[in-house]
Amino acid sequence: MNTISKITELFKAVLIEIGELSYFSARFFQETFKRPTEFKEFLRQCFNMGNRSLLLVAVTGFIIGLVFTLQSRPTLQEFGAVSWIPSMVSISLIREIGPIITALICAGRIGSGIGAELGSMRVTEQIDAMEVSGTNPFKYLVVTRVLATTFMLPVLVFFGDAIAIFGSFLVENIKGRVSFLLYYNQVFDALEFGDLIPATIKTFFFGFAIGIVGCFKGYYCKKGTAGVGLAANSAVVFTSMLLFIIDFIAVFVTDIFYDI
């Protein structure tokens, strides 16, 4: 009976969390179209988030391109299908691997940073001071950050994909002596708009999920300074689970669309 009670309490806590996050998201859409626009703060957040994650995304993408090609080459070589490597690598990276890996990196790098930043502002009563002074803290702190993550993640994904494909080219150039022009001709011949458009659309949802969860956890941070670390940690965990759910829904919807 004790176990059933714990499961019930956990289920109830999850439902409450989902409800509060939904209300928080609805408030975001309501505040987005209100004045003032806080455009300068939005640009500052875009620069900070892009600059903060650019090197990490580049290194990760480069290593993924290298490792993916090195692991795939021996198997394809057995079947005499080495010439398919540019097509296989580019489609796999752009459709699935690039967006989800980049989103997970940004969830750990940006999502945790937002949760910790807003959490520390909450526990030090800076957000309360903004409310007392007549400033709209939700508009200034939350809306700008969520919009910045929503629009910056697709840029980071494109950058990571480009670096990953370049890493794959280096392996092929060294092992198979494939020229730059030949490799990239095969890459672009294999890609279609049906590969790019669904992958690009879902990156906006990934960015929104990272921003809204990070802001939600930080904005309602409790339990003093200990809650700041908890907000950052829970933002990463919750966002990672949400990213996989969004990715599954996106792939499922895309598959239905193409079946039609």
From TrEMBL:
Say yes or no: keyword Transmembrane helix present. Answer: yes
| Alphabetically ordered keywords of this record | Membrane, Transmembrane, Transmembrane helix, Transport
Where does the record place it? Membrane
Is Translocase found in the keyword set?
no
Q: Its domain of life?
A: Bacteria
Q: What is its main location?
A: membrane
Q: Where are the transmembrane segments?
A: 54-72, 84-107, 146-171, 196-216, 228-253
Which GO cellular component terms, listed alphabetically, does the Swiss-Prot or TrEMBL entry include?
ATP-binding cassette (ABC) transporter complex
Identify the InterPro entries for this entry: ABC_MlaE_roteobac (IPR003453), Permease_MalE (IPR030802)
Record-linked Pfam families: MlaE
Membrane topology, from the record: Multi-pass membrane protein
MF GO annotations: phospholipid transporter activity
Return the similarity comment.
Answer: Belongs to the MlaE permease family.
| Record-given protein name | Phospholipid/cholesterol/gamma-HCH transport system permease protein
Give the lineage.
Bacteria, Pseudomonadati, Bacteroidota, Flavobacteriia, Flavobacteriales
